[in-house]
Amino acid sequence: MKEQLKKILSVSPLKIAALVILIALVLFFVDAPFLRFMELKALDLRMVSRGAMPSGGETVIVTIDEKSLSELGRWPWPRTTIAKLVDALKGYGAKAVGFDIVFAEPDENSSLKTVADLARDVKNVGIGDSRLYGLLEQKQKAADTDGALARSIEKAKNITLGYFFHTTEKEVGHLTEQQITAGENAIANGRFQMVRAKKGADESPLIHAYAAQPNIPQISGAGENGGYFNTFPDSDGVIRWSPLVIKFRSNYYASLALSLLVQYLEWPMLVLNVAEFGVENIHLDKVEIPTDESGKLLVNYLGPAKTFPHYAVSDILNGRISADKLKGKIVLVGATATGIYDMRVTPFSAIYPGVEIHATVIDNILHRNFLSHSGWTKFLDVCTIIVVGLIMGFAVPRVRAMAGIGLSFVLISAFVLANTAIFVRYHVWMNLIYPVLTMMTIYLGITVYRYVTEEREKKKVRGAFQYYLTASVVNEILKDPSKLKLGGDKKNLSVIFSDIRGFTSISEKLTPEELVRLLNEYLTAMTDVVFKYDGLLDKYIGDAIMAVFGAPLDQPDHALRACRTAIEMMSELRRLRVKWAAEGRPDVNIGVGVNTGDMVVGNMGSQMRFDYTVMGDSVNLASRLEGTNKEYKTNVIISEFTHAQIKDELFCRELDSVQVKGKKLPVRIFELLGDKKDAAQWQEFVGRFETGLAKYRAGLWDEAIAAFRSVLEIRPEDYPARLYVGRCEALKEHPPEGEWDGVFTMTTK
Questions:
Q1: pTM of whole model > 0.85?
Q2: What average pLDDT score do residues 482-497 get?
Q3: Which residue of 70, 173, 386, 405 has the lowest C-beta tally within 10 Å?
Q4: What is the DSSP string of 282-346?
């Protein structure tokens, strides 16, 4: 019995493969967020690797671009200009025109109120000249720019007006029930013509709106058709899906792309089918549009920006476009100019006109150019995970370790190529990440198993050293034992210092045992992050941590590793703060400083006792930068020397040019914000801050104050902006003596 139990519990390559397959299937069915994120990125790569494809030619985009703004004036234009555009597009023979714009407020360029007030005053005074009344009526009509646009829309009979929905309760807190109802009535022409709901149909997956932001009544009443232009990016900010239906109260509304297509196809039946799991599909005449359960279409992007023809509004109004370019076309009107740019992130680009997403959806539906990702593809995904896992489980143990690397590479590469070929040729999205990770994990699991069984004695020997030194130092020493000699070498490295803010006050709130437990948990988590990026943990200094990157092993990207360590330290701290708050423990915050430069590295000490460490001015500067966080109430500050090496990968904002205590020359310092792929969330406020910093350095105090206050409008908690407002006001009142260089002198360490 014991032997049988031992045999059952024994480890084998095939059992490792089976366990990995089981775990992969469980993660697949629970849709693990991180792996889903990786799969979405893999989908983007497949789409980009497929390359750009031509559009069908039915859809063009009329752009409010820089050229048009320079010729027609700043945005927003008078509604009479938009009316002329509507008239011109009708004259060009455009079959259907959609506006990726909402006219939510009366025209600010209109003089209607002034003329109306004048007419009233004339009448009150009692001037009886009928010619004057007639003239005032003409002027009043001419001043009604919204009315002019409404008349053009009504006359054109080919306009689909855009609007948007508020999809969170927070957005509609300021609206009354009467306003919400008025908004609902204004968008009635954008509803689905027919909804078929099966017995037990579940509408909960649908996107639900709380209110609509329509065009003003004068304009919305003139249009025959309408559609919302809301988009919803995935968690990484990329727009991969387009919502074709949104439920608002008891009705269902079609998107701008779908409504415009209905108008172009001369009003075919548009049917929404709802099943037990949510939206089943949408039928447009004889075309079945596949969606997910919430009614979103997976957008099959054709390429980067300008895949569709772009024509400037000014060229349209000035007759510089030949009629055949627009005749019989679907025309989408949207903004692409800097400042009013409707910027979106797509698989092809981080700067992509939002209006072109609607054009892509229209093209996908017109040509049935859909990406398939339905129930049957998920069944194939499950089968694929099992099959490739078993192949790896049988094949890898039958070859030597080095050959196993080559075999695994060939098998994984073959699968990736086959998966990509299916995507490109048949437009079928099959999961790539789960099968690949299954294959890689099985290979790694079997390799580790073989290592454990075949290298046990060697591991014991190495393990004895690892109780005292980090694995990287041990490996370096084993290659060259002479590295234990005293002395060091001068190398370009990166060093990181971190320190707990207000540690003394925290320690006063805890018993010694509680303090030690909290400190150990914190230092363990931070040390794990250092080791994750192959850093050398130099030392603990009370609650402070010092780590080095680029030694003893050469790391060409040591600055990037140090900065990613700092970012992940903050992420790990946020996790710990949530945990500690739940346990009733004090809140903890830290400051981190990173610097890159030449320093001496090696064993420092005596023949009896020494440490592998770094020394030099560059090390001291990193320590000063850690303390500089207190001045700006930031968390991570890096020097200009570090920034120069990581600026292409990570996103920062320049904080200041400072002269730290003990240094003669000023150093530009930067706040490290995060990965560059996430830059969209910071770009606006950083751009405003950089404008303010430039004005500050130029000595333009009022302009600098305005710029920094504009930062606070979108980021009220931003202390550096508030700090600069105070500095500028002080400098404005007491101008600096001599030549102003914009350098701030630190008086503390």
A1: no
A2: 76
A3: 173
A4: EEETTEEEE--TTSEEE----SSTTSS-EEEHHHHHTT-S-GGGTTT-EEEEEE-STTT--EEEE
